[in-house]
Design a protein that fits this description.
Layout lengths: L6 E5 L3 H12 L3 E5 L13 E3 L6 H10 L2 E4 L6 H8 L3 E2 L3 H7 L2 H10 L7 E4 L5 H8 L3 E5 L9 E4 L2 H10 L5 E5 L3 E11 L5 E3 L3 E6 L2 E7 L5 H17 L4 E10 L4 E7 L9 H4 L4 H10 L12 E7 L9 H4 L5 E5 L10 E8 L3 H15 L5
Parallel strand pairs: 1-2, 1-4, 2-3, 4-5
Antiparallel strand pairs: 6-9, 7-8, 7-9, 10-11, 10-12, 10-14, 12-13, 13-16, 14-15, 16-18, 17-18
Helix pairs in contact: 1-10, 2-3, 3-4
The structure holds adenosine monophosphate (AMP).
Adenosine monophosphate binds next to strand 10 and strand 15.
Length: 377
């Protein structure tokens, strides 16, 4: 076990790194952040901020020497960086687990191998694969880049073979997946933590609604039947075990109109849809990340109150909202990430609406969103 007083590291200084840093410091750890941005949200709070590229060997060796354990806030860390670090300190999750999460094809084939249903899909390496993929999947379909897609970027809806060829060109002919477009009833996610002793703690399922491809609100508990939630937890646990995963991970699922549930994607880190845990569960996802990284017993993920999380994107900075008005509602807990520049689509913060019932929490979320002018465009 790596006990409080030790130094922990995080690759990436965005909001997820910032909330990890806060949790670690609350528990008495020192924190080193590696991020090239001198203003990074986590760098502002870290004991030491190494301002260097993620591939910078000198910075990585320094980080490995300072830290007893290092984790990451994003999946696209170069594998070589993790390997360099792993020569000096504990690194979790592993480079192998990150490699799976970096590639939609790997991710979906691992999900299937561990018993998860997925949308039908076909791999497209080059233009020569387009006809076979279209024959296998057909309309309606979604073309997604295998790598580096997020928040709905790197994907296109296609309804004809010609449309598929055009969309593949538009995506610069990088390796892609063609996925059957499913009739979605809802989207839900499971955030879980698994430690080296194979203990798993599940946070309650969140029901997620997106706007313009970006998470807008998460409603907790998700309004789905318990057996479906159980099925989602089982699938997520199988996947975590099959990957030998150590740390916090999120798994996104689709609930279909026929009542079935299918795997969509995983994130090898805490997740935006788990931000409600900061105020609504006994132990939150970032403290759980610290515990799993340090080999400590996992905390209690029990839900203490229904909650709805509302994302705050840069779009509502016109100018910065008057937070005093939002905070007039006692059930609102505000979290801002310390980003100086607000840009459309940039995640600037979030707030959690807490209430006695999920309906009341949703009512508070909708009322406060309207006051802030979110969703009026
Ligand atoms: P992803 O980047 O894979 O999470 O996709 C972004 C969003 O597109 C999801 O949150 C869904 O709303 C939608 N989506 C993705 N894949 C499918 C699919 N196979 N069928 C229907 N909707 C999808």
């Amino acid at each position: 076990m790596i006990l409080p007083g030790a130094t922990l590291g995080v690759l990436g200084g965005g909001q997820l790194g910032r909330m990890f840093t806060l949790a670690a410091k609350v528990m008495g750890y020192r924190v080193v952040v590696l991020d090239p941005d001198p203003q990074s949200p986590a760098g502002q709070l870290a004991d030491i901020h190494l301002k260097a590229d993620y591939r910078d060997a000198v910075a990585l060796i320094r980080m490995g020497g300072l830290c007893e354990a290092v984790t990451t806030e994003f999946e696209n860390v170069p594998a070589a960086s993790l390997e360099t670090l792993a020569k000096h300190c504990r690194v979790a999750p592993s480079a192998a687990a990150l490699a799976v999460a970096q590639d939609r094809l790997e991710e979906k084939s691992h999900a299937r191998a561990s018993g998860c249903a997925t949308a039908p899909y076909a791999s497209i390496e080059s233009a020569a694969d387009l006809d076979a993929a279209w024959a296998a999947i057909g309309a309606p379909a979604l073309l997604k880049t295998r790598r580096l897609g997020y928040d709905g970027k790197g994907q296109a809806r296609v309804d004809t073979a010609a449309g598929l060829a055009a969309a593949f060109k538009e995506l610069k002919e990088v390796p892609c997946l063609l996925e059957g477009f499913l009739p979605l009833e809802r989207e839900v996610s499971v955030v879980l933590a698994r430690n080296a002793r194979d203990e798993i703690a599940f946070f309650p399922l969140a029901e997620n609604q997106h706007r313009h491809g970006i998470l807008d609100i998460s409603i907790v508990p998700a309004r789905i039947p318990e057996p479906l939630a159980e099925r989602a937890r089982d699938m997520a646990a199988h996947l975590a075990r099959e990957l030998g995963y150590e740390g916090v991970m999120a798994v996104e699922f689709f609930v279909l109109k026929d009542g079935s549930i299918v795997f969509n994607e995983m994130a090898p880190r805490p997740h935006n849809s788990g931000h409600y845990t900061l105020d609504a569960t006994a132990c939150d996802q970032f403290q759980q990340q610290v515990r799993a990284l340090c080999g400590l017993p996992l905390g209690d993920p029990r839900l203490l109150t229904p909650a709805v999380m509302v994302n705050l994107l840069g779009d509502v900075w016109r100018p910065e909202p008057k937070w005093g008005e939002l905070l007039r509602h006692p059930g609102v807990q505000l979290h801002l990430y310390g980003k100086a520049e607000a840009r459309p689509g940039r995640k600037m913060g979030h707030y959690n609406c807490l209430a006695a019932t999920v309906e009341e929490a949703l009512g508070l979320a909708l009322e406060t969103r309207a006051e802030l002018g979110i969703g009026v465009d």
